[in-house]
Structures
1.
Amino acid sequence: MRYKRFWWVAIFVLLSHQFVCGQQILIGKVYDATTGDPLELVTIYHLNQKTHTHSSKLGKFTIENVYLGDSLSFHFIGYASKIIEISNEGELDIGLSQAPLKLDQVTITPSLHTINVFTDVDLKLNPVISSQEVLNRVPGLFIAQHAGGGKAEQIFLRGFDIDHGTDIQITTDDIPVNMVSHAHGQGYSDLHFLIPETIQKIEFGKGPYYTQKGNFSTAGYINLRTADKLQNSQVKLERGNFNTMRMVGLIDLIKSSKNTNAYVAAEYFGSDGYFESPQNFSRMNVFSKFVTKQENYLLKVQASTFNSTWDASGQIPERAVKNNTISRFGAIDDSEGGETSRTNFAVNHTQFLDNNCAIETKAFIVNYDFELYSNFTFFLNDSENGDQIRQKEERMIYGWQSSYHTKLASNFLPAEISAGAGLRYDDINNNELSRTKNRIETLSRVSLGDINELNAFLFGNIEIESGNFLINTGMRIDYFDFDYLDKLAVSYTHLSNTKYFVSPKFNIIFHPSNNWQLYAKTGRGFHSNDARTVLNGNTTRIIPAAYGIDVGSIFKPTTNVFIDFAIWHLYLEDELVYVGDEGIVESSGKTERSGVDVNITWQFNQWLFADVSVNMTNPKSIENVEGSNFIPLAPTLTSTGGLSLNHPSGLSGRISYRYLDDRPANEDNSLEAEGYFLTDFTMNFERKHWGINISVNNVFDVEWKETQFETESRLQNELNNVTEIHFTPGSPFFMKAGLSLKF
């Protein structure tokens, strides 16, 4: 009898649900009233039912329980809000007009990604003007460069010294940037192949709470989306201090078609840098994209190629500067530097089964080469030739993902469901660490081998709305296959291992009004370990887990103020530290971090905005005793903010600050990495057919240390080793001006 009752209940629940794929509901489309282009992610509110929806990639939307006389409101950043009354039963075509940016265009919806509005507003006010500036746009994130302009930046976020990407997942148009089992460091993320003028949106999230985000997404994730269409073609020339030159061209290839767009962009950047030894930095980027939006499908195809070469002065010891052996911008070994290249090809196809059901398929191929010369310890290991090393590799990456998305309508619980599967395969050849001299002579090889690494995954996600609550739960399953062929072994040595990882997520949002939400996010995530460390037995934690929780609120106390506040905690089973000159990854044990994030945006009038982000963290190593449980270089207090001007006359600009507090440089805090406070300035004046821009970094010419490490080293004339801070000096006052022509 009990089982019969169960089946009757199950049948009742199934019958009470109607798939939106076949339900007769209000259907509409939102587009730019001037260009006719469909607008994605417009917020549509049903003012009578207090429900909402968003427009799809084709600008289409559906909304339930709409009757004659009901009212809908439409909101999108950069467009005038609109309210309409339903007067007939036909489909809706809604054109939105572009308007000066106002925070009253921003509405708070029950979504896991509402905080993205901070970067949406920021990009509308101040487009990205340099590749290094891209990551700095994420609230609470800092970057630092320590080996010439061609090396990937060091990243700080939520109390992490992430190195080059160990604990943050970075993608561009969903193409992975993090490199697994990289020659220089696990998760190495080089974004210099991205042309800043092509960036349209910065998507991000903090913590391991998102089902579609897998490896490295412990502290968070970032996905940079490029524009599908150019507003106009343009060429730009910029000149700056230190023999810096940048040339950019963006050409619209299809102007007559309404539904199909294609463009090509190219960038050249060169600079000698501010060091005494010229960096001879040179970078070339080419990017192209084709997009067609038809009635039932969306197709995007993109290809890009990038090459960069540079020299570097490296990290220098404090003692050499204090005793006047070298200046702040001098070098112990100025033969450092490198060369890297990357070519991407990607296809993204979305098939809309109807307005609420879609199948999305993505595929990509990446060809990547990397060669880096460094000298961290000078003459510590080799008193005659020095300690220069070469890290080098060649790799191909193949990836694919398919996912199904649908909305379910129910008299009780409307829901959105997504599920998918995919894989990433890295074919890495000649992953090398060698000891070298003057970037010419190879003295000895420390490691050399081929790595094959497969990551296959499944995920499922459901969002259920019930009254003022949104409940999100999901599960992700990752499978790893590690394979390594050691080319230096005396006998044939081929190692392999496999591992599964399960990542459950649960998030809940309370949304009492369009100006306020409370949220709690929980989840389990991970970062994978280097394949060589996995296979040589140096660690038992092949895929260290991360457990996180965020509790916070997003609200608008007035129409012109937007605030996000979060209290969070993150526990990691293991932290991985890359020892560059030895070619190994060491375990530093279990850690925990607790913190508070506060972000505020305030609009004073139609054209003047202010923003501030403050991030406080308490990072600790669990397995070490009190007093020796500091996490080296983990930031404890960071803050960014500024004033932005966006005047209707075409004048825009920003004065901003970056603050990083002092932090421990080693486990017992006997050495301290000095913090800094910097001020930057940008100004732009745009007309219909031309524009000028000026940017100034470090306006007040502050002496600061961009990166700092505790390092044991020995100079050529020293008898004993010395352990102290080694640093890369930050940029002095740097000014760059540019002229652009549009057509």
2.
Amino acid sequence: MKIQQQTAEEALRSLRSGPGGLTEAEARRRLEEFGPNEVERLATRHWSVMVIGQLTHFFAIVLWLAAGLAFLAESYQPGEGMATLGLAIVAVVLINGGFSFWQEYRAERTVAALQRILPHTVKTVREGRVRELAAVTLVPGDVIDLAEGDDIPADCRVVETFGLRANTATITGESLPVAKHGQPVADNDLIHSPNLLLAGTSVVSGAARAVVFATGMHTEFGQIARLTQTAPETISPLQREIVFLSRIITLIAAALGIACFFLGRRLGLSAWDNLLFAIGIIVANVPEGLLPAVTLALAMASQRMARRNALVRHLPAVQTLGSATVICTDKTGTLTENRMRVRSLYVDGEIVAVEPFLAAVDAGRRRERLFETVLLCEDVKEGLQDGRPALLGDPMEVALATLGRRGLAQPPRAERVDELGFSTDRKRLSVLYRTPGGLALYTKGAPETVLPLCAQVEHAAATRSFTAADRASYLAAQERMAQAGLRVLALAWRPVAPGTAREELESGLTLLGLVGLEDPPRPEVPQAVARCREAGIRILMATGDHPKTALAIGREIGLYGSADPEVVTGEQLTRMSPAQLQLLLDGPEVLFARTGADHKLRIVQALQSKKHIVAMTGDGVNDAPALKAADIGIAMGRSGTDVARESADLVLLDDNFASIVAAVEEGRAVFANIRKFLTYILTSNVPEIVPYLAFVLFKIPLPLTIVQILAVDLGTDMVPALGLGVEPPEADIMRRPPLAAHERLIDVPLILRSYLWLGLLEAAVSLSAYGLVLASGGWRWGETLGRLDPLYMQATTACLAAIVASQVANVFLCRSERRPVLGLAHNRLIPLGIGVELALLALLVYSPVGQALFGTAAFPPWVWALCAVEALAMFALEEARKGVLRWLG
């Protein structure tokens, strides 16, 4: 027999304990046997292993090899700038490795957040005395005392209780506090059992004495902690794409470098020139600035998302959200406002909205008894919320107390005498008061438990007998209100004669009416749901709430439109095989209710098995495993627990589903923007490669040095690339379907445009500037020039300046693949980036430091005019190409 099915005495005996608790000796023995009551940190990789992993992945190894070749070349022939190149590459590897390590190491903080939830001390009964002990020393069989506001330190069976209600949202996901009692129950459900208190939850009101039956990792909370730590880390689509892109580009660079090395051997180059040639080709092809550019672009996108109430904790999540095909969302606080309010009442034979009802009261139709009942059956306090006076307590009681205060001109003068507490079996609460008119009993509860106790009904300001027809009409009204997603309570009262037996108090009641309460949907959510549907994103609701409530909210926000959507409870989900769950998800409308931590995790994994990119929202401890396993975890910033936030990639600062949709729009823009600055960065590879081919094939002095290539890749190109990274979303971006799984950051059209069109145009511009400066200085074909020859330095500087000037034109051209520049929205960072780019170029050309580091020299002023004219010609040719494409359709 399970512990919730036993009586309190049987539960104590089964744990070899008693009302006086354990002896100290027995508690010490059990502590050795069961271990401390704490969340354990499962075996994880040491931080040093994580660091090494981030510094030895494929792309990092290639960069290390490139740096090694640069240092080797420097050792054979110092002063060529190869040491500067090697140090720059090492810096790139270390910066990106450190950033990636931090993203991986952040998972460790999830465990720390889990550990913070459990209380530090607890009132424990040992050897018949109550003492304050460290919660970590609790063992199965310990008897503990709990009161309002206490966090529950372990899984316990209630022994005694007085008006106990617990907030179980962190474990069950239920939005409302639930009543707890000490009586045995028949069901096997441990999570929702009304006589159990689970670690990680808290006491909202009342008090209890309970016996501990599970501690540490053996609790339900511990199982969630285990799932959170063992849930597999997902690799974002952007991370996978960057790995793919890095491998392709690196393999191309290595292949070109090796091929050119053997070509140089065939052409009879010296060993040094041949090595310089091969290293130059590799360095020119490997985009050293790719990862820093992507990282910075994502960081800037995350800043824009923060302004739209979405705080990014894991940068690749920015683009992942833009690729999402499914959003699994909780209900309470995300789709709804997470506050209860009275929406309607059933009085005088009709369902009325609360505002017209109150207006009628103001007009003279008084209903004092109804308002007295809702006010006197509540236990709320006055306090401050967000710095303003407010009623504090159970959200449902706050809503009812607010209704009572609005309906009564004066608060009732009454003194509480006795209480018949709420329990899952009774489903009602009755409170006995002493009033100026004598003793009176006020009752609220589920209609099915209150209506049978009523002998009269208040109707049209008069009292008459409660007939079978009245009962049928009330039950029908209850059903209609429940179908609308309302939580329905019946209100009743009776005067009590002195000396009435306690067991006879709840008889002969006068029924006052029904009250329907709701947690209203956020007003902006229906439009957000419609935008998701238009964008091809599916929304699944997975909530811990009751199926009827969840379905009603889903219908109200437009999530469910069919007459009979598929509604699956957590219990049904547990019995499904993985194949059955995947087939279920093929249905057009599916709702998951009464779900727990393992259920949400299974839903995420099933969707991922169907090749979906899954975004999962959550706020409780029970959501942490699914948040971690999803492609993007989205935690609530206001109502969410630390555990949920630490497990997530994105935190909603306003807990609003509409903010997710805004973030999706930004995420989609990020993918498009990364493609734009990839085109921009890869374009400059061609004018960096072609000079080395010309150096070998045409026996001319090397037009561009390796350190000057570095100045472009990690210097002048970076700021304009960031301008492309913050392009505003295009107007129709949320009317397109999510990115297909096979869609890549770099594809054939992008390669053709960047390498064989824009890149060749830039190569022509840069080599013409280089050749004209040489010719104007009297150079003749076949003549060798020293590295420090003023004419050679001027010519290479002109080649560098021409590349930068071409990139100034290119940054405008890359803003769109087809649309003309003049038709694009303003982006103030583009002119700023160009200004910074030209300022850096001026420092390289004219400052002594720039000249010393990069081997540059000031060239004749007419070169600037030449660069400008050629850049404008490149601009005109590309705009003409776009015009032809638009004309062809």
3.
Amino acid sequence: MNNNLKKTIRNHSFITTLVVVAIVVVINILAVQIFYRFDLTQHKDYSLSSASEQVLKNLEDDLTINVYFSEKLPPEYLNMRQGVEDLLAEYQNYSGGKLQVNYIDPKDDADLKEQLTVKGIPELQFNVLEKDQFQLTNGFLGIAVDYLDKEEVLPVVETTNNFEYKLTSAIKKVMNQNSVKIAWTKSGTESTQTYKEALKQLRENYEVAEVDLTAGKLLDSSYQILVVTNPEKELDDVGRYIIDQFLMSDKSIFFLVDGVKVDKYLQPQENKTGLNDLLINYGLTLSNKLVLDTSSDMATFSGGYMNFMVQYPYWIKVTKDDFAQDNPAVNQLESITLPWASNIDVSQEKIGSNQLQYLAKSSAKSWLAKEPISLDPQQKFSADNYNQYNLAVSELGHFASYFQDKDNPLADKSVEKISSTDNGRIVLIGDADFLSDSFLAQYPTNSVFFANMLDWLSQDESLISIRSKGVTDRPLKQLSDRQKTAIKYTNIFGITGIILIVGLVRFILRKKKFRKIKFKL
């Protein structure tokens, strides 16, 4: 009986083991077929966004992505390569079998290298450690996206940061889903060198052309957005008319204008743009005052032969809580930095029933600079009272022309004047310096904010969620001097005090225990 029982138990254990093994095998087989990853990051930084998924689902024909990565890469690029491969695997998973990814190492293929050069994918030089010494080697880190007879190229992929945005943008381009044309204003002999990097980034996703508001001609109707920056000279009625009629044509205008101009010697002067009459007609007034904020960034200045860093209230740091939380262009941003920004006043009477939104505000602890304005970074900053100010606003809806009751100032009177529109879109920021090359290098979230607003103005919000992923800047909460002092002395004496208290308690407990033992004896 015992032998039979043992035999039954052994058979049962064997069957159980077989069942477990079978279940594990089935799970592994299913796991190979089903692609799924758990992404626990706040903004799902390692998962495809819904915008990318939608683009892939809209593929009507086969899409090919050729990855020209050299096999031998420096160690610092290995994680990047793995990240690219993982992301491309997700792209394939959502493409419904219409996406093919080819990994190609050009190696010593001279013909292929020549073809890549023609495509715009350069051969790079790397320092690789071999046999305990650094050696110079050549390689490629480019990607080409082919769809039907069109091709878009990512010349160099050095990081996975923003890679999904660039790749999805390239796919949309070859699918003819991104053909927005932007006009960037220049006035007189004004140079756009100040915004060289911003223009470079724009041209990656848009058709951008520079236009002259003093030329006396209306803008081509193919442009969808007009970007207006500080004019070199005050605009006359001709320049104002060109801007006004563009808006009346159901188009969008992005104003980046300083209320106060600051030169390299930190000397302020009123910025006479000729735009305020136009803006006032639309219900918006750009102040000629500067806003200071306790929520500010560090700035580096030169003093004699030395550089120094100082907390500079004129460089306003707009944080998450002060963005419009119901606007997709800004609600995922952690911060932007606006140097020497002016506040924007709104006329509710002029706005009427239009949709008005305060995109970015200063903190509740901000104030206006007193006259005469001093920009000295070493001064003692103080305020009589605090307030909150509008730094960026948007307005959508009905606009009456500034020239509704005025004559057409252009020489060419053949084009009929448009008196109003019900579908105009305006964004106004009381600062133009935030987009200059020097600030974009230091504050990359500024360019994200700008690009998001352009997508929003063009009514193509699909790429906004992708661009904002992984862009994280979480500044420390602003504290009062009393709070800072309390934290300082807590750090100095708090830990020491806790150790002394714990030691004293242990001493007392041990003394009581010793007395009890002595009493028993």
